[in-house]
């Protein structure tokens, strides 16, 4: 499987997972579970901001963030829409890149001022693993309030997205 193909599947999984978590947070009682809901939104907003920061690194454009989160906490619906747009952009970006472009090392500056350099594919894999890590945190928070948890595994995503995979031949 090519890097483009696996990145596309992983980013599609990420979009599916973001949507599932934010749908559940929108349905979570804002009064009864205010602290957990707020913390979960802060974590998922951090993921969104980091995706935007790295979109800036990928394109060489200023991202406009001085920190890796915003002062204000968006509503679940606003964050769901923002993640959906960001996830679409990432998928379109990968589709527009050649393998050579994906393997190109790009210099950038972290929000703390440190300099760095990663290939485009490393940046994209970073976003996938970073998001997965933080969705795990949110899942733990939701479990504490006995909330239903969305499916968030790559295997479940692939089989829901392509039911024919359940056929063994």
UniProtKB/TrEMBL annotation:
<dbReference type="Pfam" id="PF05163">
    <property type="entry name" value="DinB"/>
</dbReference>
<feature type="binding site">
    <location>
        <position position="46"/>
    </location>
    <ligand>
        <name>a divalent metal cation</name>
    </ligand>
</feature>
<dbReference type="InterPro" id="IPR034660">
    <property type="entry name" value="DinB/YfiT-like"/>
</dbReference>
<comment type="similarity">
    <text>Belongs to the DinB family.</text>
</comment>
<dbReference type="InterPro" id="IPR007837">
    <property type="entry name" value="DinB"/>
</dbReference>
<protein>
    <submittedName>
        <fullName>Damage-inducible protein DinB</fullName>
    </submittedName>
</protein>
<keyword id="KW-0479">Metal-binding</keyword>
<dbReference type="GO" id="GO:0046872">
    <property type="term" value="F:metal ion binding"/>
</dbReference>
<feature type="binding site">
    <location>
        <position position="134"/>
    </location>
    <ligand>
        <name>a divalent metal cation</name>
    </ligand>
</feature>
<feature type="binding site">
    <location>
        <position position="130"/>
    </location>
    <ligand>
        <name>a divalent metal cation</name>
    </ligand>
</feature>
